[in-house]
Amino acid sequence: MSCLILHTQSAIMGQSRSLALVGILFLIPILLASQVDQRVAVIRDILPHLDGTTRQLLAFVGCWPSNVRYQLWRELNSGHHGTLGLQFAATNDRRYLPWHDPNRHLLVVLVDLGCTRAVQLLQDADHLLYYRLRWILVHSDAAGEPTTWPDCAKYQDTYLAHLPLLISNEVYYFCKDPAGQILVQQQYRLSRSSATTVETVGRWKQQSFILEDRKRPVTSVRRKNFNQFELRASLVVLHNETLNHLEDYTNKHLDTLPRVTYQLTKAVAQQLNATVRYTVTNSWGYRNASTGLFNGMIGELQRGRADLGGCALFFTQDRIPIIDYLSMSTSTRAKFVFRAPKLSFTDNVFALPFDRYVWYCTISFIVLSGVLLAVVLRVEQQLRPPPSQDHSNGSSGSSLAPIYLSDTLLNSFGTTCQQGSFIEPKTAASRCLVLLCLVVLMFLYASYSANIVALIQSPSTKIRTVEDLLVSHMKTGAEDTVYNKYYFRHATDPVRKALYERKIRNKDGTENFVTLAYGIELMRKGLYALHVELGVCYRLISDTFQEEEKCGLQEVEYIKVIDPYYAVQKNTSFREPVRISLFQLREFGIQGREQAQLYTKKPRCSGGTSFTQVSIVDVWPALATLGWGYLLTVGVLIAEKLWNFCRRKLRSREINHFDP
Q: What are the φ/ψ torsions at residue 426 (nearest 5 degrees)?
């Protein structure tokens, strides 16, 4: 019994010790976190004041003790600033940076410069330091313990002097000024070799952060003054004469797209208080298959020789990894433009006046009226016998029935064509029937003839797609430009490739790339489609076409791309300031004004249509019907001759066979 009591007491004492140990382990983090580390406090206080929205914190703080990291997690999820995701990087290695994260604008990277390889990590970050990513820099001693905040001037010269902190960077760092205040600062440069500008965001005092400016604008607006910094722009010019008229509106049909973008680039530079130095090239740029590099304007941006694309360009898949597209700067398109051919060029105008059900009714009326007329005439013959009576009366009546039917059908068809009636009706019934046919078919013939005259003068609307243009008899050509040659020669779509091989490239190896003036003149003569930029084309059409020739202009889209975009160097620090300036130019109407000055809209058909002479194409269905009719007549005649010849031969053989 005593043994049992001792065993029970020992069990109770063991359980009490276990509970006490659990309680102590539970209280350890609370005791350790009772005093918040200064590094954790400054991060907690500055996060709500960062530009943009923060959803996750990526911390490169491997040298911090576990209790400090726990404090950081607790403060981020305490409910004061919502719930933020926290991720600790294993080491200060560039592999853990969010290189390909599409939502990195919602991410903040925390780096402790006192940890091993932290400075090297910042150097390896390259464009992530200034492109769509925010940073917070703190400093610890070699053991990971908090130390006195470093002096601001020493901080900038020691850690930040060689980093690419360009104009769009969002790097916040803590340092101490000569008065002993802990400042939160940012600094930026317009280029890697230009002077550094330092911004003081605020001050941190004893668990509180004080902003210098409560209405502090976002970075892209705050750093909008470039102080006459020289931006480099690449400009595509296809005609040397354009270089003399970039500032005026002379010869607006030459290099219209580069001139619009040039005016926009100049306006962007004025908004940013910058200057622009242009380099001129004669091509937008295409990839070299062997080197993988682009030439022309894209090559200048790819190699870092230009900051801005001084000429808008089309949005294509192979250019996306090379340059950054910002905004649609023009609304021009390149399409096939042609004068609509006559309706008889694509359709049989003799079959168009009536709907198919009207044709069915017309044919039914001809057959019905012919049959009724045959019946009436047959009854008249039976009721009124001929004057000469003979024994063959009954047999002749039966033999005349098919003759009357064919005659009446032919008579009804002739009446439909307004050729008159060769059958003379004798009774009131037959006369009423013939008069009814004449009246009804007169209205039908009048409607048909009026529609034929109108349709011959009407343009066709059947050519609407590349397939329609391919199967049509129209000749095609393209303006002699770099982008036209590229898109036609590198077409992969079967229809577009066939159009190039059949109608652009000739059998002798030459290609139908013509000058703008010559192509417009061919278009004016008709039955010619020219692939050209619309604004340029309509400018010359307005100047050279007669008013009636401007009617019936049609377009067919060949290049399936959206409107041209303004482009800049890939991952450039000027991306956001330039993009915002372009959007403002559009909102203020400056972009629309430049387009209205340099681009011409489709001319309106204000004049009356001219009289079009009837050509062989218009009457070709009638001539074809006549020709087939001649062939059918000759064929039937030959068949009748052969039939009669065979019958005579057969009859002569029978006579010779029975001749005694």
A: -105, -35
